[in-house]
Specification:
By secondary structure, the chain is of the alpha+beta class. Helices cover 38% and strands 26% of the residues. The strands form 3 sheets. It has a 9-stranded mixed beta sheet with strand order 1-5-6-12-11-10-7-9-8. It has a 4-stranded mixed beta sheet with strand order 14-13-15-16, covered by helices on one side. Strand 13 (313-318), helix 14 and strand 14 form a beta-alpha-beta unit.
Length: 372
């Protein structure tokens, strides 16, 4: 990353460059949309808290908490056509970190239309590459809702119980899962399969052979084969090493179907990237097309800022009222031309960190402190 930019700016620049190389065009939207768009799809949002206001024409409007819904609303619905879009937009929502409303830069990518196996594998690869741009120590955890749905559908339980089972798998709570199965008459064989969704996770080469053995249900095997075929298209070794199958990665079935995934970075406990196929959302919004995409939550990256941007300035140059200003300017310009970030100051400002502290007085240069 370019250290002359702020951490967030540098991250966005790198991601935009990555997506452009693969033919994705930038999507721009207004700061607000009609509130109706969001209230109908609150479950799709990270937070259902939305900032609203009444427009001059009496319509209830909302500061955008999400970009995907706007992209879907305005997408083309033409057979054989695929839209490849990326965005970096400020969204207004409750931050996971502060629990208060914040203006947050969100970066994302959407592939909408007549998508096929190539489109799906490309988006997964770009999700993994996005994580690597942020931090090399990262993992992309992948699941397939069709696999889980095939087992749950065969259990003949109510939607409410299905939701509770999915929550147990998401939380890796095997004890509560077994209790639910027993209380609701789910047969032992199905209960064992569901428990395996908690205990089996790891690289695709390890997990896929194991989960194939769990059931001979045709819908189940079709979903497993779909996941295997998509992952086989990802051949870059540096990307394959980042992938792991983890069935605790789940998303709301009202909006998502097929492959879903989350991205994790070392030292950050929660996912910083989330995505998947959302054909169900397309259908809810009257579209016939398919879709897959992901979003990166830059507010989750705050813990990395002190590591990757340890010093706000490379160099602080101290001077006083007797300093030759022309000589000072020539000296600082020379440092900047060499790629440094330079702040000329009469005194060291409070809380301003630096790599090097230089005293420039009486035409002489004295290095007072060097942290490089």
């Amino acid at each position: 990353m370019d250290l002359t930019l702020k951490y967030e700016e540098s991250t966005v620049f790198a991601l935009r460059s990555l997506y452009s190389k693969y033919g994705y065009s930038q999507y721009k939207m207004n700061k607000f949309e009609e509130y109706d768009l969001y209230v109908k799809n609150k479950d799709f949002l990270i937070s259902d808290s939305v900032i609203t206001f009444t427009d001059t024409n009496g319509k209830l409007m909302a500061l955008k908490p999400d970009v995907t819904l706007s992209i879907v609303k305005n997408s083309k619905d033409v057979k054989g056509y695929v839209e490849k879009l990326y965005y970096n937009e400020n969204v207004y929502r409750v931050s996971k970190g502060s629990k208060t409303f914040k203006e947050i830069m969100q970066v994302g990518l959407e592939c909408i239309g007549d998508i096929d196996a190539y489109c799906i594998s490309e988006v997964i690869s770009l999700a993994a590459k996005s994580l690597k741009e942020i931090n090399k120590n990262s993992v992309l955890s992948i699941s397939h809702l069709g696999i889980l749905s095939a087992v749950l559908d065969s259990a003949n339980v109510t939607p409410f119980i299905k939701s509770d089972i999915i929550k147990c798998i998401e939380e890796k709570n095997e004890h509560e899962l077994k209790k639910l199965c027993k209380e609701n008459g789910i047969d032992d064989a199905t209960a064992v399969i569901l428990s395996n969704f908690i205990s089996i996770y790891g690289s695709p080469d390890t997990v896929l052979p194991e989960i194939k053995k769990l059931s001979n249900n045709s819908e189940y095997l079709s979903a497993v084969n779909n996941l295997e075929n998509i992952l086989s298209l990802i051949e870059e070794n540096e990307i394959k090493d980042m992938l792991q199958i983890d069935f605790s990665v789940v998303s709301d079935a009202k909006y998502y179907n097929g492959i879903v995934f989350k991205g994790f970075i070392e030292k950050i406990p929660n996912s910083v990237l989330s995505g998947g196929q959302y054909n169900a959302l397309m259908q809810r919004m009257g579209k016939k097309s398919g879709a897959i995409g992901f979003a990166i939550y830059l507010d989750m990256l705050d813990p990395l800022k002190t590591n990757d941007s340890e010093f706000e300035q490379n160099i602080i140059v101290l001077y006083d009222e007797a300093t030759d200003i022309s000589a000072l300017k020539k000296f600082t310009d020379g440092l900047v031309a060499k790629g440094n970030r330079v702040s000329a100051q009469r005194f060291v400002p409070d809380k301003l960190t630096y790599r090097q502290l230089i005293n420039f007085k009486n035409g002489e240069v004295e290095i007072i402190e060097n942290n490089a």
